[in-house]
Amino acid sequence: MVCVFGSFVIGDPVRILGVFGLGLAAAVLVDATVVRMVLVPALVQLLGPANWCLPRWIGRAIPTTSSRRTWITLRAAAWSTSGRSEQRLPSDPGYPCRRRHPSTAVSEAVMRKPAAAAVSVAWGVAMGGTFACLLPYLLDEWHFHRPLPYWAVAQAAGELLICAGLAPIVQSFVEFIKADGTPMPLASPPRLVVSGFYRYVRNPIYVGFVAILTGQLLLFGSPGLLEYTAVAWCIGAAAVRFYEEPTLARKFGAEYQDYRRAVRAWTPRLHPWTPAEPTGPAEHDEAECRPEIASERSSDMARIKGVSSAQAGLYVRLAYHFTRRSIAKLTGRQTERMIEPLQMYAHVPVLFKGYAKLEQATAKLHHLDNRLHALAELKAATLTNCEYCIDMGSAISRQWGLTDEELLALASYQTSPLFSELDKLVLDYAVGMSRTPVNVPDELFDQLRQHLDDGQIVELTHHIALENMRGRFNLALGIGSAGFSDGMVCAIPALHP
Known about the structure:
mainly alpha, AhpD-like, 18 helices
C-alpha cells in the first residue's frame, strides 16, 4: 500500500492527488511499523489481564470470533500457564472481569442481523468502492474511448454486464446476513452458506466483481482496465486458493468438501446444486468408519457430561479454542464432539492443566517419523477398542500419508506386504506394550535399536503409553466416535490385544 500511494507522488500530474498520496503512504508506513509493531504489543503487555475485559454493551453489539481473539488468546494462555501460582486466573472469584456474557461463550461469529447488515454494507461499499471505482479512477482509466468502429454496441454490453455483476454480489451479501454473519473473514457466518448464487458457483462475489470490471472495460474502451482486471482476478484467485478454501475446509470439514466437489469455483453450473445431491460415486459400505466394538452400553452418549464453553472459565475456553484448531489441522475436520475428552478433564481443573501441558509437550515431539508415530498410536487405539481414538487416529494417519489399504491391513500387519520391516517392528512393540501385563521381549527391543536411537525409542514408547491411557479413559467414560472419519476408511478394532 505504501508503494501504491507513493506512486501518486511520482506519476500523477495533479498536485493535490500527489499530496494526498504522500500523506496516505506515510500514514500506512507509520501504522504498519510504529503502531502495530511497537505501541500495540507494548500496550497489551502493560495492561495484562485487563485486555480481556469486555463491557456488556460491547459484547452485545459485536460478534465474538476466534480470529478476533487470537492475540488475546495467546497472551492469556502464556499468562495462565506461566507457573505463577500467586496470580489469579480470570475464572477466580476475585478476578475483576469474571462476569460472562452469552456473546463471549462461543467461538464462532454470532451477530444480530441489523449489525450484520450494517457491517456488510460498510464492508461492501469500502471494498467495492476502492477496488472497482477509486483505483480505476486514480489510474486515469475512466475516460471514454472508441478503439474500434461501432464500439457503442460494446458500451451497451458493458452497461448490462455491470448491472449483471451487481446481482450476485448483492444477493450473496443478503445470504451472509441471513446466516448471521458478514462477508468479512473476521465475522463470517457460523454455518456454510450454500444458498442463492452459491448454488451455481463457489465464488459469486469474485465473479460479480470481475464482471463489473469487464463491463467497465467495455464501457470505457480502456486497454489499461484490461490489465487491471487481469491483476485483480489473479489476486482474488490466489486469495481463494490459498486462504479461503483451506479455512473453509478446516471449519466445515466434509460438508465443504462435498460442496466443493459439486460446485465449480469460477464456472457457473447450469442447474442449481442442492445439499442432498450426490457429488460422486457412492462409497462402499466397508469404507465407512463405523467400528463395531463389543459393548454392553446401549447409548452413544458419554456417561457424564463434559464442561461446556458456557460453563467454563476463561483459561478453559482458551484451551478449548486452541485444541479445536489443533485437532482440525491434524484431522482436516471440525466436529461437534471433537474435544469431548478434554471437556471431561475440565471437571478437575488441576488435572485439566496437567493433561493439557502433557498434550502440548507431546505435540512438540518430532524426532520420530510421522508414519511410525501414526502406526504405533493407531495400533494401540485398535487394541484398546477406543472408538474416539480409532476415529481420530485414522483421520490423522490419512493426513500423514497412510493409505486406506494400509489402514484396513493393520489388523493383519504381520502377513501384509504393505508394511516394511521397521513398520512391523514398531507395530509389534505397540502390541507388546498394550498387553496386560506388558510383554516386550529383549530381542524385539534390540531389533528396534538397530533402526532407532534412544530418543526416538523413548518418544515411541511415550506415544504408545499415552494412547493406551487415552483409550482407557475414553472407554470408561463412554466417549464414542466424534465423526472425524465418517464416510471414510478407518482401522479395524482388534478382538484381543
